[in-house]
Amino acid sequence: MPTYVTSPSGYQKMQIVENTVVQFHYALADASGEIENSRKHEPVLYLHGQPGLIDGLVEALEGHQAGDRFTVELHADKAYGPRKDNAVQKVQVKHLQGAKKWRPGMVAMIQTDDGPRQVTIVKVGLSQAEVDSNHPLAGKDLTFDIEILSVREATPEELAHGHAHGAGGHHH
Ligand code: ZN
User: Fold this and answer.
1) Does CATH place domain 4-80+138-161 in 3.50.50.60?
2) Top CATH class, 88-132
3) What's the whole-model pTM score?
4) Least enclosed by CB within 10 Å: which of 26, 49, 71, 149?
5) What's the per-residue H, E or C state across the chain?
6) How confident is the model at residue 122 (pLDDT cuts 50, 70, 90)?
7) What pLDDT is attached to residue 114?
8) From the CA of 172, how far away is ligand 1's center (Å)?
9) 23 CA to middle of ligand 1, Å?
């Protein structure tokens, strides 16, 4: 059951618990500065309790409510994990998704047995490329500035699908 708390002004706000749909903005930074800011596109919409966000962020969001602004500092282990050595592998250029021409440093998607995965181009030839399968944010300590925009109960349809519907969420 969702939990409500009474705010100082007297009206009730829903807290982030399992099976609530949460909309939030974030700015993501590492030691060298800002990496991403959702205000440049649209806020994130997600169903709390379903996989998708990194664990450290899910833990930090738990219990917050609309209007909350806070900072979450995540050590690499709680974010995208440590960087692995020997993570460079060869793939066919035709299997790289996301651009027509590739240069070292660009991030591509490839399909793996475990689903889609982001890789970073190390070297690219005519038919083969070397890619680093570490997540681009692996090994980095990250800081998220979070602003919770809304928290609501998930609809039965969203619970059945396992994801949130609406702007920033899934569209069918
Ligand atoms: Zn759906």
Assistant:
1) no
2) mainly beta
3) 0.76
4) 71
5) CCCEEECCCCCEEEECCCCEEEEEEEEEEECCEEEEEHHHCCCEEEECCCECECHHHHHHHCCCECCCEEEEEECHHHCCCCCCCCCEEEEEHHHCECCCCCCCCCEEEEEECCEEEEEEEEEECCCEEEEECCCCCCCCCEEEEEEEEEEEECCHHHHHHCCCECCCCECC
6) very high
7) 81
8) 6
9) 16
